[in-house]
Amino acid sequence: MPSNAPPPASYTYARAGVSIAAGNALVKAIGPLAKSTARPGADAELGGFGGFFDLKAAGYSDPLLVAANDGVGTKVKLAIDHDRHDAIGIDLVAMCVNDMIVQGAEPLFFLDYFATGQLDNGVAERVVAGIAEGCKIAGCALIGGETAEMPGMYAAGDYDLAGFCVGAVERGQQLTGDRVSARDVLLGLASSGVHSNGYSLVRRLAEDLGWRMNRPALFDMDRLLIDTLIEPTRIYVKSLLPVVRAGRVHALAHITGGGLLENVPRVLPDGLHARIDAHAWPQPRLMAFLQAQGNVEPEEMARTFNCGIGMVLAVAPDEAEAVARDLAAAGETVFQIGEVIAGTRGCTVFGSIETWSGRGAWEATHHA
């Protein structure tokens, strides 16, 4: 007897939650963004199985390749919750290329990984536009990436980012910290805000204390609180490359997770200690606000947040003034924040800084 039962449903990838058409449309849409980052050595075309880069065309004769990868952390969640997707890609690039310049390397090309539960092309395009903008600021080419649509892996609207960067430095010009010596001067370059570390604490404070993100910040009435918190990480590559290539910098430390206390010792040889004077630069009011709102102890501040300094340079005493002047001319805000002395490898931040509610004593030491 013939069955009157309907035929079984035809399963498709789209029924499982993945749209191949949406993915293809995204690749087509972001193609011009990638092309806008083209530089010598890369034409930044998308669509192949891999991206090419020509080191000879980039002007290198005997290069060492340097690779770095990173993410943005829970700052992504802040961007998602408050519809601030346009600059989070700059953070992604910054976290990779700032790590690269501390090795003395020029970032050459960048690849991104964007993972989500269900692809929203509007959001994804905004994120990739920020990645392309970060690449242009850093002078590297966006030569590829991966978009992963994974139903069930992420909550509705959530996504995560990872970035991968490759750079180069001529053999013998790499920065390894072995040039640092006692009496070297420490220069600090101002940060643009919280950068991309400490956001689990920021978000916890916001939740516990009921911050009104879409109201003007108490410490800056001209800006919404969310906009001060989501400010993208500053990219230091183009300002630092000339002084690095000229051999005028002994070491660089990117101030990320671990703050001043843990990142500066990473570039010091055994037997040298960094002394940093917290009086040497004005505490950003955002940082003072965070410290006061959370009653955060000084040592915790100095290892969780950048405290207003995004990059630290060790330079010879007789070069410090000239290097600071050149970096200022390149657009950086520069402070002489301390010195290198003989001692146990580590870092001490001393002095006192102004907090939102008054004066706060600092005396924090980390030994590597």
Can you give a write-up of this model?
The protein is of the alpha+beta class. Helices cover 30% and strands 27% of the residues. A seven-stranded mixed β-sheet has the order 8-10-5-11-9-12-13, with helices on both faces. Helix 1 (20-35) runs parallel beside helix 4 (121-138). The longest helix is centred in the middle third of the chain and has 18 residues, at 121-138. The protein is globular, with a radius of gyration of 23 Å. Residues 354-360 have low confidence and may be disordered.
In brief:
By secondary structure, this protein is of the alpha+beta class.
Beta-strand percentage?
25-35%
The amount of helix comes to 25-40%
Structural class: alpha+beta
Low-confidence segments, given as residue ranges, are 354-360
User: Largest sheet, described in full?
Assistant: 7 strands, mixed
Outline type:
globular
Strand order of the largest sheet: 8-10-5-11-9-12-13
Q: Report Rg.
A: 23 Å
Count of discrete alpha- or pi-helical segments spanning 4 or more residues: 11
Give the N-terminus to C-terminus distance in angstroms: 81 Å
Count of extended strands? 13
The overall pLDDT average reads 91
